[in-house]
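thought: fold this chain, then report.
action: predict
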Amino acid sequence: MILEQALFWHWWVAGVAFVVIEIFAPGFIFLWLGVAAAVVGLVMWFEPGLAWEYQLLIFAVVAVSAIFAWRAFARRHPPESDHPNLNRRGKQYVGRQFTLEEAIVNGTGVLRVDDTRWKVEGADLPAGSRVTVVGVEGTVLKVEQA
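observation:
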């Protein structure tokens, strides 16, 4: 088996290869595989006769631990954005005022925003009324009379 002849620098080369793969396939998985390979290389530096089974075990434990630790950290510290509603088009309209294109009858109506027609829900109002968007539920804007 190849790992029976592996030296510390083989693991370091594997670690660099994983980091290079991370550059082309981002997602923070290959980065942690690279770190795990570097750790095994460091262990091999101090213990050159380490059996290949232990090498794989150390690699697996460090890689899985690093991935789970990173995911837990990322979950607790999500990235902050200066545009949190960038891909939530409906939420971008909350607080803005518009004119109803069609009357709200039985709680539903239509509102035109730029080139898009939005279904709206709110109190019955005639067409042409000014409304304020107060919320979004899926693709339906919740409105109140302005």
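thought: worth noting. The two ends are 75 Å apart (CA to CA).
final: tokens above.
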